[in-house]
Design goal:
The structure is a single chain. The chain is of the alpha+beta class. The protein has five helices and eight strands.
């Protein structure tokens, strides 16, 4: 399934679920890839990360982590560890952070993108997000989390006020249900 990020971004430009805000971010992603071709590690100043919007088998809730470092409810994800296969990175992070091993990619292309500031030398995460469905709802809380929860789509505001999380929730509900 591995596809270079530049090709994934090109395909994403014309997909049905991209938002106008994300279209404006693609240029920044492409600039990072040109200026820092090795940007899949933890390079200072900004690098690519991968995450997953994970829905339950009933497609009624998303799995969120109460992240220890940021003390916020967020989607599961993290660093690519020098692997340019961002889809594999998102899947690995989903498995490691949830203990769930069996996921299905709902769509093969990018689901969402975001660039957000991170305290410290990372500076910025250029996050590439994929849409996954878990085979079951049983999870294990990893060392990176205070907790995990299946957040019902209608109650997402009760878990997170992060614009990025709310945006993915809205996108999934409008485009995929």
């Amino acid at each position: 399934m591995y596809k270079r990020l530049s090709f994934l971004l090109k395909d994403y430009k014309s997909c049905k679920h991209i938002t106008p805000e994300e279209l404006s971010l693609i240029e920044r992603f492409e600039q990072l890839l040109q200026e820092k071709p090795v940007c899949f590690g933890r390079q200072p100043g900004g690098h690519i990360t991968a995450s997953a919007w994970i829905v339950n088998p009933e497609k009624s809730a998303a799995l969120l982590t109460h992240h220890k470092k940021f003390n916020k409810w967020l989607q599961l994800g993290g660093h690519c560890d020098d692997n340019p296969d961002v889809a594999a990175g998102a899947l690995r992070e989903a498995q490691e952070e949830s203990g769930i091993q069996n996921f299905t990619f709902i769509i093969p292309e990018i689901f969402d993108i975001d660039i957000h500031a991170i305290p410290g030398p990372c500076a910025y995460h250029y996050d590439v997000r994929f849409l996954l469905q878990a085979e079951h709802t049983n999870f294990l809380v990893s060392d990176e989390s205070h907790n995990l929860a299946w957040a019902p789509f209608e109650q997402m505001h009760d878990y997170s006020q992060e614009e990025s999380v709310l945006s993915m929730n809205k996108k999934y509900r409008e485009k995929f249900i």
